[in-house]
Amino acid sequence: MFARSFFRIPSKSLAASVRFLTFDAAKQPRVRIGSTAPNFQAPSTVGEIDLYKYLGNSWGVLFSHPADFTPVCTTELGEFAALKPEFDARGVKLLGLSADELGKHEQWVEDIKDISLGGKKFNYPIISDSKKEVAFLYDMVSEDAFNKINEGPIATVRSVFIIDPKKKVRLVITYPPSVGRNTSEVLRVIDSLQVGDKLGVVTPVNWKKGEDVIIPPTVSNEAAKEKFGDFKTVKPYLRYTSPETKN
C-alpha cells in the first residue's frame, strides 16, 4: 500500500488484532510546518486515493477522526461539506480520514447527509485508515497512545493539516476529543497563507480576508513604497498596507 512500509504484520487474518505490534517508535516520521507531506495510497469513499495525485496542483486540507459515528466528528465532517464551495473558491481540496472500515464510512455518510446537508450529496472523500498507516505517517496519536503503541489497537487524534501545492505542510492543528474544530479558522488561515505567498506579507492577529496586512521587517521602506505604494508605520518594525498592491 505504501512505497515504504513501517509495518510487519504476520498475516492478514491477524491484522486487526496486532496493529502496531511491531511498531518502531524510532521510525516515527516528524511532520512539522515546512515538512514535505508524506504521500500515501489508501482506500476511500470514492475509491483508492493517492494523496499527491488527488491534490495535483491544489492546496489541500487533510483532517482526521478516531472513529465513525462519533458525535463531534459527525458535526465537523458535515460542516466541511457545507463549506466546500468556500474551499473550492480558494483552490483547496478536502480529504477526511477516519480509522474505521470503509463499509462503516459509507453508512456514516448517510447520517452526515441527514444531519448537516439536508440530504444533499456528500462531496469529498473520507479515507479508511483502519490499519492506522496514515495515522503513523502523520503522527496522529496522543501521548498516552504513543506510550502504549505496542500494546494493541489505538485511536487516532483529531488533526488538521494544510498542505500547499508544493506538498509542503503549512499548518498543523491538533484538537482534543471534546473540542470541535473551527472551520472558519481553517478558511482564515488559508486566506492568510495565500495572500502571504502572493504578496510577501504577513497578517496580524485576528486578520480576515481584505483587511490590511503587515510588511515584514526585512523589506526596506524604499522597497515597500515601490511594491505597495502607501503604507502606515506604527513602529519601525510594524508597518501596515492594503493587500491590494499597485503591481
Features:
disordered N terminus, 8 helices, alpha+beta, Glutaredoxin, single chain, 247 residues, 18% strand, Antioxidant, Horf6, Chain A, domain 2
Number of DSSP-assigned strands = 10
Describe the largest sheet.
Answer: 5 strands, mixed
Radius of gyration: 21 Å
Number of helices: 8
Strand order of the largest sheet: 5-4-3-6-7
What is the CATH-assigned architecture of the largest domain? 3-Layer(aba) Sandwich
From the N-terminal CA to the C-terminal CA, the straight-line distance is 47 Å
CATH topology of the largest domain: Glutaredoxin
Task: Label the overall shape.
Answer: globular
Q: Enumerate the spans where pLDDT stays under 50 for 5 or more consecutive residues.
A: 1-21
Structural class: alpha+beta
Write down the secondary-structure element order: EEHEHHEHEHHEEHEHEE
Quaternary structure = single chain
Determine the fraction of residues in helical runs and give it as a percent range. Answer: 25-40%
Strand content: 15-25%
For the record, what is the CATH homologous superfamily label of the largest domain? Answer: Glutaredoxin
GO cellular component, one term: cytosol
Keywords: Antioxidant, Oxidoreductase, Peroxidase, Redox-active center
Function: Thiol-specific peroxidase that catalyzes the reduction of hydrogen peroxide and organic hydroperoxides to water and alcohols, respectively.
GO molecular function: thioredoxin peroxidase activity
Structure description:
By secondary structure, the protein is α+β, with helices and mostly antiparallel strands. The protein has two domains: 150 residues, Glutaredoxin, CATH 3.40.30; 42 residues, Antioxidant, Horf6, Chain A, domain2 (Antioxidant, Horf6, Chain A, domain 2, 2-Layer Sandwich), CATH 3.30.1020. 30% of the residues lie in helices and 18% in strands. Strands 5-4-3-6-7 form a five-stranded mixed β-sheet. A three-stranded antiparallel β-sheet has the order 8-10-9, with no helix packed on it. A two-stranded antiparallel ribbon has the order 1-2. A hairpin with a 5-residue loop joins β6 and β7. The chain starts with 40 loop residues before the first strand and ends in a 6-residue tail after the last strand. The N terminus is likely disordered. Thiol-specific peroxidase that catalyzes the reduction of hydrogen peroxide and organic hydroperoxides to water and alcohols, respectively. This is DEKNAAC101302. InterPro entries: AhpC/TSA, Peroxiredoxin, Peroxiredoxin_AhpC-typ, Peroxiredoxin_C, PRX_1cys, Thioredoxin-like_sf, Thioredoxin_domain.
